[in-house]
Amino acid sequence: MARIVVVGAGVGGLATAARLAATGHQVTVFERADTVGGKLGRYVHDTPAGSFHFDTGPSLLTLPELFHDLFEATGAKLDEYLDLAPLDPIVRHVFPAGGPALDSCADPVEFAARIGAAFGDRAAADWQRLWRRAARVWHASARDILRRTVDSPRDLASLAWRVGDLAAIAPGRTLRGLGRRHLSDPRLRMLLDRYATYTGADPRRAPAALVAVPYAELTFGGWYLRGGLGTLADALLTRCLDLGVVVRTGATVTRIDAAGGRVHGVRLAGVTGPVPADVVVANVDALTVYRDLLPHARRLAGLADRSLAGFVLLLGVSGSTGLAHHNVFFPRDYDAEFDAVFGDPGRGVRARPAADPTVFVTVADDPMARPAGHEAWFVLVNAARQGTAAGAVDWRRPGLADAYADRILAVLAERGVDVRDRLLFREVRTPADLDAATGAPGGSIYGTAGGLLRPANRGPAHGLWLVGGSSHPGGGLPMVTLSAQIVADEIGPAW
Q1: Residue 428, exposed/middle/buried by CB under 10 A (0-12, 13-18, 19+)?
Q2: Phi-psi label, residue 68: left if phi above 0, alpha if psi -120 to 50, beta otherwise
Q3: Neighbouring residues of 177: CB distance < 8 A, sequence distance ≥ 6
Q4: How far apart are CA 487 and CA 19, in angstroms?
Q5: DSSP characters for 89-108?
Q6: Largest CA distance in the chain
């Protein structure tokens, strides 16, 4: 039996702790916040009309079989803890210049039919051809990458890729390039580009292999958890406690002790002396690990390319607007948005708030989320991270957040959804707020920008492991859950 310390009680940390405790290890989790869940945040706003409940992080669950596997591995059933509701549409896409919206769904034949009805037979045939390629990429990734450690480019190069897999993955091609090669309709290209933002990346630079992301979502479905996605954190915490895991909130780890090339424990703020451990699992951003907890210049050097962040409005809306659960309102010029969000430091172009951004609106049809006759809106736009460098924006600048919130509401009005005279309240969350609340450097949602190679799960000291969205295999609830499985399997059972 090993003494294991998990740093951070996000989904990756809790999932790893539960798996390790179920195999006989002694596990303690230290979380600096007062609540668990990490980026799977929640917020409640009380009004005379009643309480509004918001998920302030992920709003969609995909690949539910991974969560079934997680709970079964810890001796429980997912359905005993969570109430999964399938979504159709998964996302409603609203394009510029009017025209029909496109509702995505988990039936590939039905989705192709919807594309054909909205955009014509050629567009549907294009999408089906792309889908066959996406399937090859997904199966190759699931088989060779997503369930095993990938510590270096050499590991990727050494995989026994099939010729057809390599042709589909198209090393060196971008997601934007893949869309232009396969999709003649600009609206479908725009839809495909959006999936680069799932990994915090610019589609003009993101690898074509990210076509596996829409394949997973639109093949295995999108799900909502009744009561909100935050109930997943509650369920994982319950599993951990039932398995004997010690979970300490309000406990900040300031350093990982690793003299002689192996971990010995951690140091806590305000506590004299070390907390001994045979193994340390870090569920914090890799940048934080290698900059602050265990300084490591070589590992830190590869973490400068940060993912995009998000600017969020939490709105209490009176009446019903008839929106889907997830809605995407695209801009006229998608490239202008990416130019603004990422900037171009090489040409001296600073990042800035996008004037005409894509706007994501989540409206859960859940009586537990809002009072009767009202809606709780989670509004998200892509944003540059917090900071003063050329690729960042100082969101703490007085007046900026409120002015940009006004701009986003005006953009929604221009796109046919004006709720400014129906607001009971609005709350603003900037990348600076995410940084402060979760320790995500600069408020970057996914750590480093998307790609096939993320910071390795295996740390530079024996007994150090990394889990979570900033490490392999990447961001999003399913990938974070897979990172926990990879690490738990590598550590192995106590017996």
Answers
A1: middle
A2: alpha
A3: 208
A4: 10
A5: SS-EEE-TTS---EE--S-H
A6: 69
Contact 456, 152 (CB under 8 A): yes
Beta strands 279-282 and 392-393: pairing type?
unpaired
Structural domains in the chain?
3-40+66-76+226-303+449-491 (3.50.50.60), 109-220 (no CATH), 305-443 (no CATH)
Which pLDDT value is given to residue 167? 52
Query: Sign of torsion, CA 212 218 219 224?
Result: positive
- Interatomic CA distance for residues 294 and 245, integer angstroms: 24
Task: Summarize pLDDT for 318-354 with one digit per residue, the tens.
Answer: 999 999 999 999 999 999 999 999 987 667 789 999 9
**Residue at 5: amino acid letter:** V
For residue 479 the two structure tokens come to: 């990938």
Cβ proximity of 151 and 465 under 8 Å = no
Over 90: is that where the pLDDT of 158 sits?
A: no
The amino acid at residue 354 is A
Q: How far apart are CA 225 and CA 212, in angstroms?
A: 24
Confidence of residue 160 (pLDDT cuts 50, 70, 90): very low
Tell me if 59 sits within 8 A of 212, measured CB to CB. Answer: no
121-144 helix and 212-220 helix, angle to the nearest 10 degrees: 100
Let me know: does 101 contact 117? Beta carbons within 8 Å: no
Residue owning tokens 């990727």: 156
Helix (H, G, I), strand (E, B) or coil at 13: helix
Report if pTM > 0.90: yes
Residues 6+ apart with CB under 8 A from 212: 134, 137, 138, 141
Instruction: Measure the CA–CA gap between 215 and 221, rounded to whole angstroms.
Output: 10
